[in-house]
Design a protein that fits this description.
Layout (H helix, E strand, L loop, with lengths): L2 E7 L5 H12 L4 E3 L8 E8 L14 E9 L1 E3 L8 E4 L8 H10 L2 E5 L8 E2 L2 E2 H6 L9 E13 L3 E8 L5 H12 L3 E11 L2 E2 L6 H7 L15 E4 L5 H5 L4 E2 L1 H7 L4 E8 L2 E9 L4 E7 L3
Parallel strand pairs: 3-12, 14-16
Antiparallel strand pairs: 1-3, 2-3, 4-11, 4-12, 5-6, 7-10, 8-9, 10-11, 12-13, 15-18, 16-17, 17-18
């Protein structure tokens, strides 16, 4: 029982809870998830089962897409409407569409943000949110993230709805807080749904109820969502060597990537996915990293 499940996590379920649910439904102990989703948020949560758990790290760098609602007029300590209000602005003037689009432009590209302290970010091995519950002071360093696109969908009396496509590590709660600060009005995220993680799409995700019905039929091939990695076709006679951790020289890749090349590859043999390797330009060879099929 090996593969991925495109799981539609409902609000109120933690990512850890989702893994436990999949484990119980499939009767499989080896289950993990890629890309934690906040308990209050809904949407796509890729869940790996069996040998696919060894491939979770290769989903780490894929783009993520979200739809969010942002409310103006107050800010909270958590960045969303479940937190404690720390700032209010009564009688504020709702910014017009042009000002909102100007703010979106300012936050598109490489930006610096500070993740919320009410998050699962690890501080000396402990989750920041757990440290806060113990009454400890938490300081989270800023990080650089990529906002590939921001699209305004709707404006209301005190809220906007927008789509965002971004890199890993981006916190939409922090993005809402920062956009509000840019506009001079405290703001808070009031709704979030993750629409995509790489090739895992919301419209193709299975709900907990659908998973209970489908069972193992909901499993997707291990390699189906690794299309962001370059494919390498291993010669048949090198499969045993690859399985035993031995390198395979390939001058064609040296010509393509050069001696400085260090490229992660999804490796196939006779059309079958056999694992993950990487090309090392200094050795002019493909080296195995994860052997999935021997």
């Amino acid at each position: 029982m090996d593969g991925f499940i495109n799981f539609l996590k409902p609000p109120g379920m933690t990512s850890h809870d989702a893994v436990g649910y999949v484990r119980r439904q499939l009767g499989e102990k080896k289950v993990g998830h890629a890309g934690t989703l906040d308990p209050g948020a809904a949407g796509v949560l890729p869940v790996a089962v069996g040998r696919a758990t060894r491939l979770i790290e290769y989903l780490d760098g894929v783009e993520k897409a979200y739809r969010a609602e942002m409310v103006f007029g107050f800010a909270t300590d958590s960045g969303d409407d479940s937190g404690t209000v720390v700032e209010r602005a009564d009688g504020f003037v709702m910014p017009d569409r042009e000002r909102i689009l100007e703010a979106f432009a300012a936050f598109t590209g490489t930006i610096t943000q500070v993740p919320p302290a009410h998050s699962a970010i690890k501080i000396n091995g402990r989750r920041a949110c757990d440290l806060l519950r113990e009454g400890r002071r938490v300081e989270i360093p800023s990080r650089r993230v990529e906002i590939y696109s921001l699209r305004l969908l709707q404006t209301g009396r005190s809220h906007i709805v927008f789509d965002v496509v971004c890199s890993k590590g981006t916190y939409i709660r922090s993005l809402c807080t920062d956009i509000g600060a840019h506009l001079g009005i405290p703001a808070t995220m009031s709704f979030l749904v993750r629409r995509a993680v790489g090739g895992f799409l919301l419209e193709e995700a299975v709900t907990p109820e659908q998973l209970a019905e489908k069972g193992a039929a909901a499993l997707l091939p291990m390699d189906e969502y690794l299309g962001h990695l370059e494919r390498y076709d291993l010669p048949r006679e090198r499969l045993k060597a690859f399985s035993n951790g031995l390198l395979t020289h390939d001058r064609r890749l040296l010509a393509r990537y050069g001696q400085e090349g260090n490229v992660i590859l999804q490796v196939y043999c006779d059309g079958r996915f056999v694992g993950i390797g990487h090309f090392d330009g200094t050795k002019a060879a493909v080296l195995p990293d994860k052997v999935i099929v021997r």
